[in-house]
Amino acid sequence: MKKITFLFSFCLLTLGAFAQTVQTFTASGQDDDPTVLTILPGDITVNGANPITALSLTNFSVHYYTPDGDDTWCGSWYDFDLAIVGGAADGTNIIGGCSPDFEIADVLDFTSITLTSNTIDSWSDLIYMYVDLSVTFTASEPPVCNAVLTNPLNGETIASNDGNIEWSAATGGVDGYYLTVGTTSGGSEFLATTDVGNVTTYELGILTGGITYYVNIVPYNPIGSATSCTEYSFTVAEVPGCAINPEPADGAVGVPVGNVTFSWEAPTSGPTPTSYNLYAGETPTGDDYGLIANFTDFNAALTLNGYDLELFWIVKPVNGTTEATGCPVWSFITESAPPTPANNECADAETINCGDTVSGYTTTATDNGGYNASNDVWYVLAGTANGEEITASLCGSDYDTYISVYDACGGNVVAGNDDFCSVQSQVTFTSDGSSTYYIAVEGYGTGSGNFDLAVTCVPPPACVEPTFTIALGANNCPTEEYYVDVVVTNLGTGAAVDISDDSGVIQTAVGLGSYSFGPYAAATDVNITVEDAAGDTCSATDSITTPLACPPANDLCVNAEIVYCGDVINGSTISATDTGNNASNDVWYSLAGTTDGEEISISLCGSDFDTYLRVFDACSGTEVVSNDDDFCDGSIAVQSAVTFTSDGTSTYYIMVEGYSSNNGNFVLTVGTCSTVGIEEYNASELFSYYPNPVNSTLNLRGQKAIQNVAIYNMLGQEVLRTSPNAVDSALDMSSLNAGTYFVKVTIENITKTIKVIKK
């Protein structure tokens, strides 16, 4: 429900002691909230204490976004529901209406009137709705004299000279107002007592600056006029003089485009202005210009666009809300367009060096391949040292800039920036010592203007260490000997580097690339040093440890070790390699010759690390099943187990690896696959069972008598058997460890299998 604000407006229709007036009700909010306007009998106040003889709903309107916004969207963006309870219009219910759907001739004696908004489109719209209630009443006494002057305020000393005055509505049943305005207290020199009708605004016409006006507002109705009314007064602001000494000067030529400061001096006559209105345009038509802005000081920072353009401007001092009149129109002509810059294209880039600052413009350049769709100019920087830190800055430019650096015309972007110092740009990058860098100066979006480009360079340190990576290379397995590959990625400040290991073997590198060292025995810590060949004061070191042993024979899927149902394999992934999936070492096994429908269970329970188990239908094939953690030893463990059904034709490839990057020793158990034959079935056709998972007792109910029940663990071992020979059977599983079990149920010599979880 929205807070309801009541606005009042009045019109007069008098017949004897009868009066008719209008009270306007309004509410605002989002159309999809919804916004609700509810009117109750006690909300009607325009009649004062006078009895109401007739009521009707008249004008309805709704405005979008602001109280006086667009009123054309009802029926397209939103509509309204009207419900009336009680009185002559009791039961009125209009759905999805707009004006004039809500004009109801007689709503006398209503209990409530409710208007509710509906959204039609998918947007949430801010709305202001208004509805008028026409009130006819019998006046029994004059209205109350409590109308208050609201504009100008009572006692205001710098009121506007436009002569528009406003007041609040009086209460007690108003038909209209008598308005008197004088230049003396109680006088009527400016406006003799006038019946202005049932309104709360009046246009007096232009008033004289420095004069105090006295206002009397007297409401009336058919019974008579209000008495003891308050007299209000206000003083009109004096009209200020005109500003002088404009800058740019009147008649100036060659005024720069871009950011320009307009300035003026205060008038030499009249009151001190409270502010200044600045108007400007391209034709000398005086007050027809658009208002640029109101300023409280003597200058304005504006942006001029366009060459050889004559512009006209006026500064009108303001006293309160009263503007100066008859102020002069000033004019100036902007500069002529400069020529297209010589460095408009990358191929014609202008040379710039470390420490240089250059000024230029992009206003008459063209877009020639920079980062944005804006005019650009180009500079070229060469001869920088390897490791030198280069900064190119556009701070101080007069427009929203963008700077980008390339390693060639049409080449790769080395660095780029939009905003660094406010909306101006700056980049810093490190030279590789060999590239020539091309700097594009342009604008954000399509902007252009005047710029300052400063390039500063910080020399590299005396020592920039070479960079390299080391990794295990080839090996001599099964002989446990290993090589280490050293890849030099940057020579640093040296022209060449020496690469050495702990044994003193040295290789000299004059370029980037890979260098092999070794062989080394298993579990050897190999320390590699790369240093400037000209001296040992600039160097970098790194180390690597060779494997404990050669990779197992089944390190790769293509070399998978064959296993069979019932096998238990002890193995390790410590010396294996990572062939994919998790970032851990892995080994492979293959299982073939299984029968269609066989339930195959594979477990890593008993392993000494956090394992992960996957099964594929081929090397690089589709993953059939996988598992991270499963039940081992009666509780959830970090070892893995899977169960899947064979298709009778596939060879299955079992991948043993670690969770994340874990490695260790494992126990791989392949269940006795043929022990539990699991057919494709729909067990519900023979029996039902609950609960699953089970705590202690599994309940079975057969369609007919249950002959036998057998329970098997994940290894295919029978752990419980019973012969109920009854429709209902309760299996006590409390002695079994937590885990996954297969339950075979036989009814009329038909056996079906279900899988249950024991908690």
UniProtKB/TrEMBL annotation:
The keyword Nucleotide-binding does not apply. The keyword Metal-binding does not apply. InterPro entries: FN3_dom, FN3_sf, Ig-like_fold, Secre_tail. Residues 148-239 form the Fibronectin type-III domain. Residues 1-19 form the signal peptide. Keywords: Signal. Transmembrane segments: none annotated. It holds the Pfam family Por_Secre_tail. This is T9SS C-terminal target domain-containing protein. It comes from Bizionia arctica.
